[in-house]
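Record 1 of the preview.
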Amino acid sequence: MKTTPIAAALLLGVAASAHADPSSVTLYGNIDLYGNYMHSSSGVHVVALEDGAYLRSRWGLRGNEDLGGGYGATFKLEGGINADNGSSATNGILFDRQSYVGLDTPVAEFRVGRQNGPIQARGAYIDWTARDLGSMINNFGVPSRYDNDVSFTTKRFGGLQVEGHGSLPESPVGNHPIVWQLGVDWQNDSFRAGYLGLRGQPPSHATINKSVVYDNVYADWMYGRGTVYLAYVHSNNNTATAVSNNAGTILGNAGGYNAGTNPDLSHFYDIWQASVDYNVTSQLRVGALWGRIQDKSGRDRGASGGAAGAYYDLSKRTMLLALVDTIRNDTNGGWRPAGSGGLKSNFTNPNDVNGRTITGVQLGVVHKF
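->
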């Protein structure tokens, strides 16, 4: 009998659960699908069923073993799914999201493998959408995860937690250009503040000897019925493609390295964003945000935009969402909407993106298992 790789992995997960402590291995995931309508001021529109407005569809296995004395072994294998057609999110890679083993100690957890960095993990601290569909910071692009990553994450002491990563991409150039990441977060019952940073250094003797930079600071006020979020990003991780003036990244958001050859390493952007949400009931949360991408190079490739909408919990596992959002590109700005994953049906003609205003309406459902 033939089995697909995903089916085989599922069978292995079920077998592991059957022969171990039931609490030590867990099969988990979610399905996130939404209907998307977008209109460009060029007159063109897009209507599509998309994956990943909020969490991006995924499945995975995670587990831990108690080693005693406050120590434990951990692991996670997680793969993305295009739930609209059933395919893997990344062709040829079963566990494209995370694949790591770790050691948990009383002071910190240490991990090795492909894993989310602090920028990805703290999206819920950035704005009311958890920095997903409708977020201007998300539209700019979020460095998420990298291969061959060695990390530590401390426990929280006095409200403070620190996380560090060093990734060694498998590259044919020079000295293995390293991707460094750092996260510092402090919080109490009413306030939260922190820093998230990345440096994608170039290989030795690079043509353009400059690092990819991503610096993000945030401050939140949890006022009781909701949260006020303020966030700022300074980055040069953007470049033009055949689609638009701002459709590409220099360092991939989910892998890759800085080859040190892109002239856009010298071009920086500042992103300012404010948002607020309000819990109308224990099930219904509404919110809105507005943000500005400012082109510091003087090429007029910025944009302004925002979103408003609601999330409604039908149960602990199932949520409905509704959003309206807009991006108002500057004269040469080429920004397009993005969700938790990239949109498969998007504007691909520069005339429909560069300098255009793009508005959208989305309705979706997220189910966790």
